[in-house]
Each structure stands twice: as C-alpha cells, then as structure tokens.
Write a structure and sequence with these properties.
This protein is mostly helical and about 150 residues long. It contains eight helices and no strands. The chain starts with a helix and ends with a helix. The mean pLDDT is about 95.
Length: about 150
C-alpha cells in the first residue's frame, strides 16, 4: 500500500477534512499545507498527484498518535524508523487507537479477514526477531477497513 492510500483511509476513518490532516502532520513536527494534503488525496493517475514520502508518513503517524492520545511533554519523541513498512503502520495505528490484541483481532475480523494470534503477534514483532513476519498489503487493507467500520459510525 502506498503512504497516500493509508492517509486517505485514516482521513475517511476519522471523518475529517484536509485541514485537520495538515494539523495532524503539524502535531508530528512537519508543516504541510492544506494544498499539499489535497494533492496527497488525488488519484495516482492525476498529473497533480503528490507522493507522500516515508519521512512525511513518519511525521503523520506520530502526529496521529498525538492527535488521538495527546502528547506527553516529559518524554522526548522517539526517533523515526525508516523506511516505513506495513508492520510499522500497523504498530503505530495500534498505539494511536489504543488497541489491545483482542481489539486488533476484532478490527481485522470486521474488515473481513480471520487472523490467528500467532500471525498477528508475528506482525507486531521487531524486524530480526525469529518469528517476525512481513505484513502484506492485503492484511493492512483489511485492518484499515475494519478500523473504518469500528470508528466511523
């Protein structure tokens, strides 16, 4: 999945406009104009389409956590993990929406995919761990779809 697809999906899940997405970027420490956000939302075939790079996505994910949970000023921000992978997106969304393991199973199931505990645990492990497994685009799509069904009433 492209970073733009993830941002588009989160925008729909939160039911917010481009201005709020720009504010979420700002919470993560990156100033992005509302016009740039509108270009992120365009279709890939559109000549004005603007691709969201990994550094911008890292700022967006951290900003989303601050937007949903608030910022703890006593702790310094974590360094960015680059490149952005589906596994990292899954982890950051888990933190932002305060989901525990049973909640994540429920969200993925609502999205239309049945996943076992071991498989989900493998997606959430650090790269290099023996049971680490790459999260595919389809699993992330099911998760984002489930998030939308759960949080957008």
């Amino acid at each position: 999945m492209t970073n733009n697809d993830v941002i588009r999906s989160i925008r729909y899940t939160l039911n917010v406009y481009d201005k709020k997405i720009a504010e979420i970027f700002a919470l993560g420490g990156l100033k992005v104009s509302v016009e740039d956000v509108a270009l992120f939302m365009k279709d890939e075939e559109d000549p004005e389409y603007l691709r969201c790079d990994d550094l911008s996505m890292a700022h967006f994910l951290d900003g989303l956590i601050y937007f949903k949970r608030g910022r703890d000023e006593s702790k310094p921000p974590f360094p960015f993990e680059l490149p952005i992978s589906n596994n990292l997106i899954l982890k950051k969304l888990r933190v932002a929406f305060t989901l525990k393991e049973p909640d994540m199973h429920e969200v993925i199931s609502e999205g239309g995919y049945n996943i076992g505990r071991a498989e989900l645990s493998a997606f959430l492990r650090k790269k290099g761990q023996p049971n680490y497994r790459e999260c595919g685009d389809q699993v992330l799509r099911y998760f984002l779809k489930g998030l939308t069904l759960k949080f957008r009433k």
